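job 3f2a | input accepted
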Amino acid sequence: MLQTGHWKLRWMLWLGLTLCLLQVPVLAASETTERIEWKKTPIRLELTVGEERQVQFPASVKVGVPGNLQPLLRTQSVNGTVYLMAHAPFESTRVMVQEIEGGQIYLFDISASKKSGQNHPIQVVVQEASKPDDLNNGSAVASNISYVALTRFAAMQLYAPARLLSDRPGIVRTPVSRDPIDLVRGGAIDAIPLVAWRAEGYYLTAVKLTNRSDQPQILDPRNLRGAWLTATFQHHRLLPKGDEADTTAVYLISARPFSVSF
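job 3f2a | predicted structure (262 res):
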């Protein structure tokens, strides 16, 4: 816990005034990512010829493209995200996507046209069944938990006075290794995961960042390694090592567990 008097004051000012402004999407248009729950019904997906579209899955997948569609559709699957781009128009065609581990299968009815349409990313989620004990304890997954709400929850857990802390139904602690990681490119900043949670298909991890150089460091989400939906810095600037402001935290939201997303 980062709870000196200095940090408490900065936390109160930051949380009340600037949380929404500090929330920085790591992926382009992450604010408009459409979440679709897989309910065993084929998902309709429309492509615009020549424009790439992303589909995010809970785990790494492989794509089965019918032979007649292979010359018309480019697919690339990287760490749970499938990148699709149509080279020419085609009618709705069934495409199967399968998780590499576990074998979960998703079906898509994909079509393409030259007409400009929606090309925002899509995130496919699988609703986890609540266990009886979870329901009895009031820990069932809550609906419509936003990125901002998750980030605010994490910030309170790290910086708020103990009297203000409380559990939130639907946000559950998950294990995370506290070994140092090479999260920030450039080698000037140490990173250590502190705590992680899971909520409604999202994974939230708080990571401590410490400047180990003699120069101040500006924090930029584009310098983070990993696949994150959003990255929110508690502060955007670290003073040189040894200064009381040489340490901060970053809150990372991902579609998969931290160990897989990093």
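job 3f2a | The chain has two domains: 5-28+134-261, 39-125.
job 3f2a | closed
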